């Protein structure tokens, strides 16, 4: 799943080499946190959050197929 999310995000940003996806398991839920270059944050989030919402939907569709629970988040500036 980590590779899947990384691949999707790298396709839409200007600096794909700066993309990092952390995977942590909390209470049976896989939590994926995406960090990107500051210049790419707007693209990653998208207008009214549409891009990140689409990324989450694709990841959740794959998670349902794999029978796992996931959460996809973006690492904010103060967390970097």
From TrEMBL:
Any single GO BP term: peptidoglycan biosynthetic process
InterPro entries named among the record's database cross-references: KH_dom-like_a/b, KH_sf_prok-type, KhpA
SUPFAM superfamilies, per the entry: Prokaryotic type KH domain (KH-domain type II)
Pfam families: KH_KhpA-B
Primary residence: cytoplasm
A GO-annotated cellular component: cytoplasm
Keywords for the protein's UniProt record, in alphabetical order: Cell shape, Cell wall biogenesis/degradation, Chaperone, Cytoplasm, RNA-binding
Localization per Swiss-Prot or TrEMBL: Cytoplasm
GO molecular function, one term: RNA binding
Entries under PROSITE patterns matching the protein: KH_TYPE_1
Subunit structure: Forms a complex with KhpB.
Function summary: A probable RNA chaperone. Forms a complex with KhpB which binds to cellular RNA and controls its expression. Plays a role in peptidoglycan (PG) homeostasis and cell length regulation.
Family assignment from sequence similarity: Belongs to the KhpA RNA-binding protein family.
PANTHER family reported in the protein's UniProt record: RNA-BINDING PROTEIN KHPA, UPF0109 PROTEIN SCO5592
Protein name, as recorded: RNA-binding protein KhpA
Organism field: candidate division WWE3 bacterium
Gene of this entry: khpA
